[in-house]
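User: what does the whole thing look like in 3D?
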Amino acid sequence: MLESLKEFAGHFFVTGEPLIYMSDVAIVVVSLAIVFTLTYLKKWKWLWKEWLTTVDHKKIGIMYLISALLMLFRGGVDALLMRTQLALPNLHFLDPQHYNEIFTTHGTIMILFMAMPFLFALFNIVVPLQIGARDVAFPYLNAISFWLFFFGALLFNLSFVIGGSPDAGWVSYPPLTELATDPGPGENFYLLSLQISGIGSIATGINFIVTILKMRAPGMTLMKMPLFSWSVLASCIIIVFAFPALTVALALLMFDRLFGTHFFTMLHGGNPMMYINLFWVWGHPEVYIAVLPAFGVISEVVATFSRKSVFGYKSMVAALMVITVINYLVWAHHFFTMGASAGVNAYFAVATMLVGIPTGVKVFNWLFTMFRGRIRLTLPMLWAIAFIPCFAIGGATGVMLAAAPADYQYHNSFFLIAHFHQTLIGGVVFGLLAGLYYWWPKMFGFILDERLGKWAFWFFNIGFYVCFMPMYALGFMGMTRRVYTYPAETGWTGLNFVSTIGAYLMGIGFLLIVAQVLYSIKYGKRDVTGDPWDGRTLEWALPSPVPHYNFARIPEVSELDAWWHMKQNGETLAAQNKKAPLEPIHMPKNTGRPFIMGVFFFIAGFGFVFNWFWMGAIGLIGVVITLIARSQERDTEYEIPAEEIRRTESALGRL
Amino acid sequence: MTTVAEKRPTNAGHDGGRLPLEYTRHEGPLNILGFWIFLATDVVLFASLFATYFVLRTHVDGGPTDKELFGISGFTIETVLLLTSSFTGSLAVYAMRNGNKKRLLGWLIVTLLLGIAFVGYELHEFLDYAAEGATMQRSAFLSAFFTLVGTHGAHVTFGIIWMASIIVQIARYGIDAINARKTFIVSLYWHFLDIIWIFIFTTVYMMGVVS
Amino acid sequence: MTNGRMQEGKHAPLIPMKNFVGYLLSLVLTFAALALGMAHVLSFGAVMLIMLLLAVLQVVVQLIFFMHFTESDGPRYHIVGLALGAFFALCVIFGSIWIMTFNSQVH
Ligand code: HEM
Ligand SMILES: [Cu+2]
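Assistant: Here's the predicted 3D structure for the full assembly of 973 residues, as structure tokens:
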């Protein structure tokens, strides 16, 4: 009995690695500390009432943001471990298996559990405010999306200490990932956690499409909508049409592993390339899902800090919409080397290069917006300015990769690694950080410290180029991705060492950002006006932080840059509030069900990871029960009395 | 999120420009548009499954082929059952828009029963195939076949549970704006599954018969 | 219940013409496809093409006769959404077939 228990635990928990024992201890200590602090401060009820059951888009956004920053930390630590291992030839800091696991978790976490929630954080916090709405179209569904993401991410991260991490890359190609070659549960963790959070992403996509199409303030026609909201619309359209392909790819691979089907096996007629095809039907659009909202942020930031309306608004919208469609038609450029027909490769090469055109339009429009503008070099603007050249170089190397015959040389080399980090960091992360600095005062009511922020900015930026430029050269010198070490005779040592220094500079940059946040919580300048940047769009009309019903009265919009024009005409929301008596507002009630549903999904996922079908069944039944309970629920709203709104507004000086 | 008591109709249906009941509460039009978009995503989900099926259709690994496997009478009966249930589902919405609760319930129950018959028949078909040794594990073709058709069947099963939940609510609370919205949406789902089935009928079963 | 619809509804027919015609059409289209498939008169490609056309007609029948496809309380965004969905679906299907029919060794 004891023996079998021991043996079970030996497989169940990851053992034999000092790094992992250290993390085990750290996890237990941190969990205990959290439980203790919450109990000591009697905050459990607060946590449940204010956060876990909330359906308020602003709070959900903040929860996404916190999760994303935590995941950025974990993904970043993974990156530093990899770079440490590669700093010098023949190091044995990590063994090959461990290296495999780390690049897998790094890539997966960065894309799905860092970039996605970071985006969703901005979607949630900004879009309803920017279009003059009181919440998203489906607040309840919004909470479900968040908890599915959260429990998906939890499941994925659990693999670190229970069962073992996935180790087949963030793309998880079969046949390597079939049972015969990868029997451990790590791969199942990957499949199920992505599946669960993917469902949440699709729901978010639908939610924001409807919010943007249906809930704009009166007078805000689509062509008067701020560009960030446009970019969210574009991103969400891509989400709803791309994620189903991932759902299918993951599900079929899971069937292969759990039920013995033969979609992607090497036996009984399976075809592993079909997985790769389906994966990239989603995978390429995914990068646009991530980068378009970053474009949107840049458009807002550049306009605000050049004190000009964005140049070529209509062409910006058109470019977004064109990208939304053609980004879907280029996916095979990720597997030119598969050996499809010449026609296929030729078409996908040309189509890929075409995406460069609308992207170029956007870059020029940003430059023209700045041209002759009165530029203020605030933190958001610094990141936006850094974004432009960085993303442009990333785009240019992308066009190099798109030339199919040349790609046979670049494919899966460090050239590719440098390319996509340049677009993912220089594009997505820089854009998201610009957005974070820009909207931070709106979320929390204080401005992040400039001085520390500038240090962080320079460390991160210089670090970025020091880290990734050498990788282009390493790629040309023949270094392939996903190698855990290399012999000294290759001559790669110098460049690798430089690259590692750059990675550590970026790490310092990240720590400086953390320090900046902590410092500013205490000493940061409070934002008392609600409009610290002299903004142009409606969110800046509101006080910071925003009351939970957002707008006491929904404003009428007559122009693009609505708030800017109101200010020009000497109008304020306070004046609007005074015009007529305020009316009561209907808001959705808080509910714990989305959280509970997430728990059931987690239980189901965990069960299937270990082939414990009984547990999987319990989880799924729980999910269905929560769905039925929701279907039967009829009283989902409550009313905020006018009196309470009046009190809140006058306390905020808006009456 | 203020309640909109009476919405201005622009493209409203048949009855003289007034919007149907399901559009009258503020969340009605939102949910309906949201559901249409969900259906659009589901189109792509099925498209991915269809694509997989077409790619793997000939990968039979010496096992049964589509031509050998499919029996015309079986899938024809399934098709007629589903088409009829789609029809009765549309009658339910018609009765609802006329405020006729009894007929609404009646047609929903008929639809539900037809749906159950469909799923039962499909299960029977699957078990038959399995008994002949044509299981999911036999070949890539069969994996793709069972997954595509089974995903549709799972959708129908889910629709049955959902519709049952709505029937209970209509029996309890009658035809109000909330129930009207729910009924309309579940009917969209149901017709949508019929559309998917038409393509399964054409490009899975009939293609097997013709080839 | 703000209008006279409810009263007049009590006298509405059990099965209105529109829905009945829709049902009939869907049955006719189904059996036309069946008959064509069993007749073995045309080549595989031609039969599949005609059957796909019939299937598309079926979709139109469902959308128009049963699904109140044109109804909306504002701009008909859902039509744009579904059109995009259909377009992307075709891309995935035909794109995948095109890409995946390389000299596959696996059968
Ligand atoms: C701190 C900055 C970062 C550094 C130093 C870094 C470094 C690396 C390294 C060394 C690899 C593995 C190369 C190999 O052996 O194949 C890698 C892979 C990868 N990184 Fe990063 N990275 C960073 C940030 C990011 C971010 C922000 C993202 C995405 C938003 C990202 C996405 C990926 C992906 C998808 C892979 C491929 C994983 C795979 O091979 O399966 N990285 N990164
Ligand atoms: Cu791509």
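In plain terms: Residues 140-173 of chain B form the longest helix (34 residues). Chain B has a mean pLDDT of 90.
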